[in-house]
C-alpha cells in the first residue's frame, strides 16, 4: 500500500513523494534513514526528513560537484571525499583514470544501504582498487591527516545534526592545510532561495583561509527552490576562471560521456544569478 512521505527541511514549505514501497526505514547511530520507491524518481533516500538522492536525478549533483574541480585543476592525482556515502561522487571521481581517491564517511550503514539499494550510484566504485574507504569522522580526519590532496569534495548533509561541523571555519582551515599548492575545495552549500544564510555564512567562514573563494550553481530537480550552490575555494586564483577551450581540451582527453556536465556548463555555472550575488559580502 502506498503512502505519502514529506520532506521536512523547511518550516513553511514541503514537497512530498508518493512511496509505492518502503524498502528500508531505521534510525541509525547518527541519522534517521528511509529508502523508498517512487514511480517517477525511482528509489529515493531521505536522511532526517531531507531528500538526499534519487535514481532519476542523482547524476546532476554528482557530476557537477566532482568534475568541475577536477577539470579546473587539470592535473589532479589525489582526491579526498568527505561524506558521500551513496557512492555517486566516488563513481564520478574514479572515472578520471589517473586519480587515487580517499573517501571518509562517518556512517558505515549509509554505505551498506546504498550498495544494496542504490547499486547504480556507486556502480562498483567501492570495490575499485583506487578507492580507499575510511569509516571515520571527516572533521577529525582533516585535522589529523598528514596527506595532501589536489581536490577535496565535501558531500555532506545540510548544516544540522552530524553535518553541522562540516560548515565551520575550523573545518575549512583544516581542509586548506590538507590541500596541495594548487588544490581546490568544493562543498555542498544548499539552495540559496530558501537557505540564503548558508551562502553568507559559508563565505564569511571560508574566505579568510583561501586566496580565491566563490560559488557555482547547479539545478537539481529534487533539491527544490531553483539553483543549489556549491562553494569553491582555492589558493590558485586562476583555476576558477579558465576558458571553455581549456576545459574542453581536458574533458575530451578524459574520454568519458556525461549527462549534465559540459565544458560550457562548467564555465557558465560560476555566473551567479543576481539574487545569489546579493547574498555575498
What does this structure look like?
Catalyzes the irreversible transfer of a propylamine group from the amino donor S-adenosylmethioninamine (decarboxy-AdoMet) to putrescine (1,4-diaminobutane) to yield spermidine. Pfam families: Spermine_synt_N (PF17284), Spermine_synth (PF01564). It comes from Candidatus Terasakiella magnetica. One of its GO terms (cellular component) is cytosol. This protein is α/β, with parallel strands linked by helices and 281 residues long. It folds into two domains: 3-53, Spermidine synthase, tetramerisation domain (Spermidine Synthase, Chain: A, domain 2), CATH 2.30.140.10; 58-277, Rossmann fold. Helix content is 30%, strand content 29%. It contains ten helices and 13 strands. It has helices at residues 58-73, 88-93, 108-117, 119-122, 138-144, 169-178, 196-206, 244-254, 263-268, 274-277; strands spanning 3-6, 16-19, 21-27, 32-38, 42-47, 50-54, 78-83, 100-105, 131-135, 149-155, 179-188, 212-218, 228-234. A seven-stranded mixed sheet has the order 9-8-7-10-11-13-12, with helices on both faces. Strands 3-4-5-6 form a four-stranded antiparallel sheet, with helices on one face. The protein has a two-stranded antiparallel ribbon with strand order 1-2. Strand 7, helix 2 (88-93) and strand 8 (100-105) form a beta-alpha-beta unit. The longest helix is centred in the first third of the chain and has 16 residues, at 58-73. It is globular, with a radius of gyration of 18 Å.
Amino acid at each position: 500500500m502506498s503512502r505519502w512521505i514529506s520532506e521536512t527541511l523547511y518550516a513553511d514549505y514541503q514537497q512530498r513523494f508518493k512511496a509505492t514501497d518502503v524498502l528500508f526505514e531505521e534510525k541509525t547511530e547518527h541519522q534517521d534513514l528511509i529508502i523508498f520507491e517512487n514511480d517517477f524518481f525511482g528509489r529515493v533516500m531521505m536522511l532526517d526528513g531531507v531528500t538526499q538522492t534519487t535514481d532519476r536525478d542523482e547524476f546532476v549533483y554528482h557530476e557537477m560537484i566532482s568534475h568541475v574541480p577536477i577539470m579546473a585543476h587539470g592535473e589532479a592525482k589525489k582526491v579526498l571525499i568527505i561524506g558521500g556515502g551513496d557512492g555517486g561522487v566516488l563513481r564520478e571521481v574514479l572515472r578520471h583514470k589517473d586519480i587515487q581517491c580517499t573517501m571518509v564517511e562517518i556512517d558505515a550503514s549509509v554505505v551498506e544501504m546504498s550498495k544494496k539499494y542504490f547499486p547504480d550510484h556507486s556502480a562498483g566504485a567501492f570495490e575499485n582498487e583506487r578507492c580507499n574507504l575510511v569509516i571515520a569522522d571527516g572533521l577529525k580526519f582533516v585535522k589529523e591527516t598528514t596527506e595532501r590532496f589536489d581536490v577535496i569534495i565535501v558531500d555532506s548533509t545540510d548544516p544540522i545534526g552530524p553535518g553541522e561541523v562540516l560548515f565551520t571555519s575550523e573545518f575549512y582551515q583544516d581542509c586548506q592545510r590538507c590541500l596541495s599548492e594548487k588544490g581546490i575545495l568544493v562543498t555542498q552549500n544548499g539552495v540559496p532561495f530558501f537557505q540564503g544564510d548558508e551562502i553568507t555564512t559559508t563565505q564569511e567562514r571560508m574566505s579568510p583561509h583561501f586566496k580565491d573563494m566563490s560559488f557555482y550553481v547547479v539545478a537539481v530537480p529534487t533539491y527544490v527552490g531553483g539553483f543549489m550552490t556549491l562553494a569553491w575555494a582555492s589558493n590558485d586564483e586562476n583555476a576558477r576562471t579558465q576558458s571553455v577551450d581549456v576545459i574542453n581540451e581536458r574533458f575530451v582527453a578524459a574520454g568519458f560521456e556525461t549527462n549534465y556536465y559540459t565544458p560550457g556548463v562548467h564555465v557558465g555555472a560560476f555566473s551567479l544569478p543576481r539574487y545569489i550575488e546579493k547574498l555575498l559580502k
